[in-house]
Each structure stands twice: as C-alpha cells, then as structure tokens.
Design goal:
66% of the residues lie in helices and 5% in strands. By secondary structure, it is mainly alpha-helical. About 3% of the residues have low confidence.
Length: 306
C-alpha cells in the first residue's frame, strides 16, 4: 500500500469501507443501496447527492474486486502522470458523467416503453405500481469512473503492451480500450437484462475522452499535461540526453583543442541540467500540476531547446 499513490490508495480504502458498511448495515435492516444508490431521476427516492455516492457502492465481492483491481492497476499509473488533484477531479467528474448517461438511457427506456401511460406494472405475476417500479431503477458501482481511468491510460500510453488473461500474447493499450468500447456498445445495444449498466461504462469513457481532448487542446490553462505534450516532452528530453552522451567525447576533445576558451559555458549547462532533473523528479512524485510557474517555464524552454 505504501507504493500506491495517495489518491488511488484513498479511493481503494473508501470503496472497501463503503462495501463493508453496506454489508453491516444490511444485517441491521438498513439498505444503504436504496439510500445512496443512483435512482432514476423521476423516482421518488432520487436525490442529487446520489450522483456522487453511487460510485462508492458495490453489489458483491466480485463487483468490487474487479473494479478495485482495475483502479489499482491503471489508476496508480495515471495518478503519477497527472498528480493527485487532477486525477481525483477526473475520476469524480467521469463518475458523475457516467451517472448522467445512465439516467438518459433510463429515460429513453421509460419513454419507449410508455410507462407513463400505466399505473401498474406486471412483473411475472407480481403487480407493482409504476412509481415503485421506477424506484427499483438503481445504479451502483465505480465501473463508470474506472472505465474512464482505463481510457486515460490508453490515451496516455497507447502503445504500452499488456498481458490480459486469457490471451497468451501482449495487447497494446489502445486496442484494449477499443475492445472494451466495442464490447460495452454491443452489450448496451443488445438490450437490458444482464443487470449491468453498460451505458454508464460508456458514459464514463465518453466524459473522459472529452475531458482529455480539452486538456490537450488547452495545455496552457494549468489543468492538462496529456500525452501530446507531456510524453513528447519526456521523449524529447531523453533524446537530448542520449545525444549529449553520444557526443560527450567529441565535446571533450573540442575543449582540449581550444585551451584558450574558458570553461564557464559548461557550468550553466550543468547547473540547468541539475534543475531539470530535480523538476522531473518532482513530476514523478507529485505530478505536473505540483510545479510552480517558473518550473513549468524552465521545462518548456528546455523542451524547445532554449
């Protein structure tokens, strides 16, 4: 746990505690799922706060295990790239977005089935009022937010190769994301019945895609450091470092051939490199957003060869 970034670790802990609390309260006759799960907005038990609380509840051990495993696996990497504040903002925002898309899908179902024209619904021999039936449309789980983290990983490291069971060969992250989108889209269009909110999964990824695209188009607003600028910067810095190493011997011979030239020009470069190394270490530990404006400017100038 000590190696997991702060925000990812806290999200894992909160989700686990909420799962235990749901189980304990259920033994005492209190249904937290009904209270904190996301109800259909036309149902009597719907509340706005449920757009936040629903993503911390889970329906069983398998449900929470796979969500938290994916959060640990991909979230830890994304948080180290973005920093804790941006990561949490993205996670919560995409979770809310997933809930909004799920509400829209439920409303479409409500309109197409013309439930408004009926006072009661027949559920396999059980007669239930339409109001009570709509109140059963409840969504829980972190899947929408977790799918957005998977999307972020795929967009930041599209060519990273992953081993996914049961495939015996590595798959690039971008194709893994495309595969999940295709599966969820097919499942959503196949119609309800499996008890899984596929539209919420797609909604989380949709909001994540829009957010990352916006950050990449507006890198100067302090909120974004995506692959288009961030990874290119690291690649550029690595290339420059390799070039310096490759021509180090040539540089030394140049200074030996021209002894009359002072060595002062080398000192500022070494000093600048030490500053850049310190800034890169700070990014790895706390994310790009933890840098000051002066540090960001130094990084940008260095990436441009200034």
């Amino acid at each position: 746990m000590n190696n997991i970034p702060t925000m990812t670790k806290n999200l894992l802990i909160v989700n686990f505690l909420a799962f235990v609390a749901t189980w304990v309260m259920e033994l005492r006759g209190i249904d937290l799922t009904s209270m904190l799960g996301l109800h259909f907005f036309m149902a009597k038990d719907f509340h706005l706060y449920q757009f936040i609380t629903y993503m911390f509840l889970h329906g069983g051990f398998t449900h929470i295990f796979f969500n938290m495993f994916a959060l640990w696996m991909f979230g830890a990497v994304v948080e180290r790239v973005w920093g804790p504040k941006k990561f949490l903002f993205y996670y919560i925002s995409c979770g809310v977005g997933a809930g909004l898309v799920q509400e829209l899908a439920q409303y479409v179902n409500y309109m197409t089935t013309e439930l408004a024209a009926y006072d009661n619904v027949n559920l396999g021999g059980t007669i239930m009022s339409t109001a009570d039936y709509l109140n059963l449309w409840t969504t829980i789980g972190a899947s929408g937010a977790v799918y957005s983290i998977l999307l972020a990983f795929g967009m930041i490291f599209p060519n990273e190769r992953l081993f996914i069971i049961p495939f015996p060969f590595p798959i690039k992250a971008k194709w893994l994301v495309v595969g999940y989108i295709a599966i969820e889209l097919f499942s959503a269009l196949s119609g309800p019945g499996d008890g899984v909110a596929h539209t919420a999964h797609l909604g989380g990824m949709l909001f994540g895609f829009i957010m990352i695209r916006y950050w990449r188009k507006h890198p100067g607003n302090g909120s974004g450091f995506g692959r288009s600028r961030g990874q290119e910067f690291f690649d550029n810095m690595k290339r420059r470092f390799d070039e310096r190493q490759q021509h180090a011997s040539n540089g030394r011979r140049r200074w030996e051939d021209e002894p009359e030239e002072p060595e002062q020009p080398k000192k500022p470069k070494r000093h600048n490199q030490e500053e850049i190394d310190a800034i890169l270490d700070k990014i790895r530990k706390s994310g790009y957003d933890s840098l000051t404006k002066e540090e960001k400017k130094k990084l940008f100038d260095q990436s441009q060869g200034n």
